[in-house]
Design brief:
Elements lengths: L13 H22 L8 H5 L6 H25 L4 E7 L5 E6 L3 E2 L6 E5 L6 H5 L6 E6 L2 E16 L2 E10 L5 H12 L16 H7 L7 E5 L5 H15 L9 E4 L3 H6 L3 H4 L6 E3 L1 H8 L5 E2 L2 H8 L8 H11 L2 H16 L17 H11 L5 H22 L5 H16 L6 H11 L6 H4 L9 E2 L4 H12 L9 E4 L7 H8 L7 E5 L15 H4 L7 E5 L1 E2 L4 H11 L9 E2 L8 E4 L5 H13 L4 E6 L2 H13 L4 E3 L10 E6 L8 E6 L11 H11 L2 E9 L5 H7 L1
Parallel strand pairs: 2-4, 8-14, 8-15, 9-10, 9-13, 11-12, 13-14, 16-17, 18-23, 19-21, 19-22, 20-21, 22-23
Antiparallel strand pairs: 1-2, 1-6, 3-4, 5-6, 6-7
Bound molecules: adenosine-5'-triphosphate.
The site of adenosine-5'-triphosphate (ATP) has 24 residues, from α5 and α7.
Length: about 700
């Protein structure tokens, strides 16, 4: 796009200039639509005849579908063809006006690129240029391109109409304030029920992560609301654009904390034009790989126990087990156990052939332990059995024993030998491993199995079961990933990562989380080094400290909650001021009335409002109160797979990762929140869910955690 300016910019009002340009781009796109290949209209009879299509017809259908998709893309892009412009003069060359959009657009007549895809190398200028001096550069496939920027402009187009033009940098003018103006304008919007893309306002530190080298694993510690999840999704879209030959969407995965969260983030990638990326939870992935041979003990029950106000006595033991199962030492111990188990995998004695020579144990052992040593155990078994079968068949042939009854004898001998091999179910080995470690045996696995019922395991058993599955079966090529994103990674254990690394041999990982939000502490990590150290050949570590979600007042308030509990990376708010955080005492008997009153007030200006309770039991009670008052409120519990927006009643621990325009934290009293790091983190998570308004209700005695913040 080497387009020289048609008009000297100073003489033209930016809005008028962009309105003219927009018309030109829209006309070009209309021409592209009118001139492009028209998909043939198929009648219903034809559609019914799919099975009878010839190869040429199949190819025609594929071409027609491509044409249809291309038209749909252009129609979508016409609603918002671009969102930014940067005027850049590469050294020794004339000025280029670069328009940046969600997708690249070409002028079909001239072949010129009139809009750059946001992921294109030159588009990086739009995100990395922060207006300190006019020098800028970007890395193109040919090398670094240096030059000067003379204009950076944000442009809002909705449904093909120009709405707003904000210059965040104009050569020779002091524009420092305008840099944030557009971001603030975007952040002030009320959000709907889904996470959205941020292509128009990606910040320099986020851009750096999105475009980071795919071959180096990256660990990101980001404060609440710093855009971790959003950035990870944009990174996937970027990597796919950048490496179309090496990466496939279906071989990329994002591990999210819950099915509800998967639903909440499900629209970002399609908005970015990316389909097919796997979005799942670790448990769902593990159960699928294990072919659902085990059932997960109700995960909701574990959460209810973990966040109950008073835990049963056996809870502490269960949590010690969780912690222990996540330690790398346990994984190493499992590997040692599996190494030893290998010795007992091969049946003792010879494979006795019905005709001719039998096979000595030593020969079979050489195959199993030496020749096939690099294969997973089950594959070794299959290869050995195939070789034994061939040997038996050859011996029978040599002995002239090829009639029907000899064949039957042969088959029986092979079956007999096969039956001497031990059972190769991962769970069998896991049970034996637990016998080695009685301190790790969960009550669920100790229970006698009902006939035909699938055994139940806890979430922390799954990584170890997967490790055994890998040892037995290796990795199915269909389960290999080109890139793995782990969100809320502070709740993953070192063993989770150790096991996942086998599914992604390229070590292309994006791992993100926030240690200040680690409310499942026994299950997760305390330091990022627990992950970083697992990549001896290098791993990048980045901290994101600016929170884009919440107002200045909310972030300041939430930060105070954690201060007594040691060093944490504190969130820095974007200077977006809003309402004061309201901390209000209510009489215990009036608490429902107070909440209803607040919900109704907040709902006037918020599309999403959440009432955050300390326990799931409380969430049920508040939900009932809302229903009785005629409010259409949704109860979010651990087994829910979708998130609907509107009014939500949620236990605080399930709200992690979500956000709401307004949040009411209820029952912030000493009975519900102790002076403890875990409860401080719970309140921190709750407060940082709010974008615009935060209200905290308590009945005396107020929790010390709040008392402290008031001091
Ligand atoms: N550059 C940006 N421009 C506009 N909005 C942004 C930007 N970065 C983040 N946001 C917004 O901030 C909010 C928080 O983003 P996100 O949920 O990705 O953060 P997070 O770090 O994963 O938060 P948490 O750890 O609290 O779950 C979202 O509404 C997102 O759209």
């Amino acid at each position: 796009m080497n387009e020289a300016d048609a008009f000297p910019r100073a003489a033209i009002d930016p809005f008028e200039e962009e309105a003219g340009r927009l018309q030109h781009v829209l006309r070009t796109m209309e021409h592209a639509l009118a001139g492009g290949p028209k998909p043939p209209v198929r009648d219903e009879d034809e559609e019914d005849q799919d099975e009878a299509l010839t190869a040429d017809e199949v190819a025609d259908v594929a071409v027609a579908e491509l044409a249809r998709e291309r038209r749909r893309e252009i129609e979508r892009a016409m609603r918002e063809p671009y969102f930014g412009r940067i005027d850049f003069s590469p050294a020794g060359m004339s000025r280029q006006r670069l328009y940046i959009g969600k997708r690249g657009i070409d002028d079909p007549a001239s072949g010129d690129r009139i809009v750059l895809d946001w992921r294109a190398p030159a588009a990086s200028l739009f995100y990395s240029f922060a207006g300190q001096g006019d020098e800028a550069s970007y890395v193109s496939p040919e090398g670094e391109v240096r030059g000067k920027v003379s204009l950076k402009r944000n442009i809002v187009v909705r449904d093909g109409e120009l709405q707003r033009v904000v210059d965040s940098y104009v050569e020779g003018q002091d524009q420092a304030a305008a840099t944030d103006e557009f971001l603030l304008y975007r952040l002030q919007d009320a959000k709907d029920s889904r996470l959205r893309d941020i292509v128009a306002t990606i910040q320099a530190e986020q851009n750096d992560i999105i475009r980071a080298d795919r071959s180096l694993p990256i660990v990101i510690q980001g404060v609440a609301g710093s855009g971790k999840t959003t950035v990870a999704l944009h990174r996937l879209a970027y990597l796919l654009y950048q490496h179309p030959e090496r990466l496939r969407a279906e071989r990329m995965v994002i591990f999210a904390p819950s099915a509800m969260f998967v639903d909440y983030i499900s629209e970002v990638l399609p908005e970015l034009g990316v389909g097919g990326v796997q979005q799942t939870t670790f448990s769902a992935f593990a159960l699928r790989v294990l072919d659902h041979a085990v059932l997960l003990v109700d995960p909701g029950e574990r959460l209810r126990q973990r966040f109950a106000l008073r835990q049963p006595p056996e809870y502490a033991t269960a949590m010690r087990e969780v912690e222990c199962k996540g330690r790398l030492e346990t994984w190493h111990s499992l590997q040692a156990f599996l190494g030893e188990s290998e010795q007992s995998m091969l049946p003792m004695g010879a494979a006795v052939a019905p005709f001719g020579r039998s096979l000595e144990h030593a020969t079979i052992a050489r195959w199993f332990f030496e020749e096939y040593a690099n294969y997973p155990v089950f594959v070794r078994r299959q290869r050995v059995l195939a070789r034994v079968r061939r040997h038996f068949e050859m011996e029978a042939k040599a002995a002239g024993q090829t009639d029907k009854s000899s064949k039957r004898k042969l088959a029986a001998a092979i079956r007999q030998y096969e039956e001497r091999w031990p059972n190769m179910e991962p769970l069998t080995f896991y049970r034996r491993f637990l016998e080695w470690h009685p301190e790790l045996t969960t009550s669920s696995l100790r229970q006698p199995e009902k006939r035909g019922a699938r055994p139940q395991v806890q979430p922390e058993d799954l990584p170890l079961l997967l490790a055994i599955h890998q040892w037995l079966y290796g990795i199915d090529p269909r389960d290999r990933f080109d890139h793995v994103v782990i969100d809320e990674a502070q709740d993953f254990s070192p063993v989770h990562l150790q096991v996942l690394r086998a599914y992604c041999p390229s070590n292309s990982f994006t791992i993100l989380g926030d240690l200040s939000q680690s409310i499942h502490s026994e299950a997760g990590i305390r330091e990022w080094s627990a992950f970083i150290d697992q990549f001896p050949s290098g791993c990048r570590y980045v901290e994101l400290s600016v929170s884009y979600r919440s107002t200045f007042e909310i972030i300041e308030f939430a930060n105070r909650m954690l201060r007594p509990f040691g060093p944490a990376v504190e969130a820095k708010p974007v200077f977006r001021s809003g309402d004061k955080v309201l901390v209000e005492e209510v009489a215990w008997r009036d608490r429902f009335e107070a909440v209803l009153h607040r919900i109704i007030g907040m709902r006037e200006s918020s599309s999403t409002v959440a009432v955050l309770t300390r326990t799931e039991e409380d969430a049920h009670v508040y939900h009932n109160a809302c229903l009785e008052a005629g409010l259409d409120a949704h109860l979010l519990t651990a087994d829910r797979g979708d998130y609907e927006g509107g009014i939500s009643i949620v236990p605080i621990y399930l709200a992690k990762g979500l956000e709401f325009d307004s949040v009411i934290v209820v029952d912030a009293d000493a009975n519900h929140y102790n002076w403890s790091e875990r409860d401080a983190k719970l309140l921190y998570v709750g407060c940082t869910r709010a974008l615009h308004r935060l209200c905290i209700l308590y009945a005396e005695p107020i929790t010390q955690l709040l008392e402290w913040t008031k001091a």
